[in-house]
Amino acid sequence: MLRPPCAPWRGIPSQSHGARPPLSDTAVPATFNALPPDDALAALLTCCGSRRWAQRLARHRPYPDLGALLAASDEGCYDLSAADLDDALAAESASPMPALGTPGPGTLAAHTALRAAHAEYERRFRHAFVICLDGYGEDEALDQMLAGIRTRLGHDPDEERAIAADELRRTVRGRLARLITGCP
User: Fold this and answer.
1) Could you check whether the bond before residue 36 is cis, i.e. omega within 30 degrees of 0?
2) pLDDT tens-place string over residues 30-66
3) Of 26, 25, 56, 58, whose CA–CA distance to 40 is shortest?
4) Residue 98 class from Cβ within 10 Å (0-12 exposed, 13-18 middle, 19+ buried)?
5) Contact between 149 and 54 (Cβ < 8 Å)
6) Which residues of 144-157 are buried (b: 16+ CB within 10 A; e: fewer)?
7) Burial of residue 61 (number of CB atoms within 10 Å: 0-12, 13-18, 19+)
């Protein structure tokens, strides 16, 4: 059985701690390909809350390699209907806020600012704030989240929904790659 990636954070991708080795697109997802349909669906739903996306990816197994699976994921994300995107963003919203940042004098203030920005974002756009933080170190994540949310609060709702959909797609790719390769 595949071990799902860490529980997603509130609008934030689950990340491993510290630097990760690069993922190989040629890795064969043999364990994933061999899962019973219900188990594959459950594993995929840990990566993206859209049932239609998960069913589509589960139905098109087997995948010859990770690159093909990630391409199918991207295509599925691009094809999400408005209702599917709502489902996926609602699943993000149900996740708890991360404990990010190195403890220090500004950390509590940054977390307070982040909570307030999240509340304003969700009030304004009616969906969770999603940002892909893959490639950033643990010590950079809080600053990236704050900068991202502050910038994106200035967008109009249609522009922001498109950006959120793309950030979700990128986040899902990272979760799916970690699920398949067993990276935390």
Assistant:
1) no
2) 999 999 999 999 999 999 999 999 999 999 999 999 9
3) 58
4) buried
5) no
6) bbbebbeebeeeee
7) middle
100: its two tokens: 């990010």
* Interatomic CA distance for residues 156 and 8, integer angstroms: 26
Query: CA 72, CA 69: separation in Å to the nearest integer?
Result: 5
Helix, strand, or coil (residue 14) = coil
CA 63, CA 30: separation in Å to the nearest integer?
8
Distance of CA 74 to the CA centre of its chain: 12
Tokens of 76: 């599925």
User: What predicted TM-score, i.e. pTM, was given to this entire model?
Assistant: 0.82
* Whether residue 62 has a cis bond before it, omega within 30° of 0: yes
- Tens digits of per-residue pLDDT, 5-36? 443 433 444 433 333 444 556 678 999 999 99
Tokens for 161?
């929904």
Q: Are residues 172 and 134 in contact, defined by beta-carbon separation less than 8 angstroms?
A: no
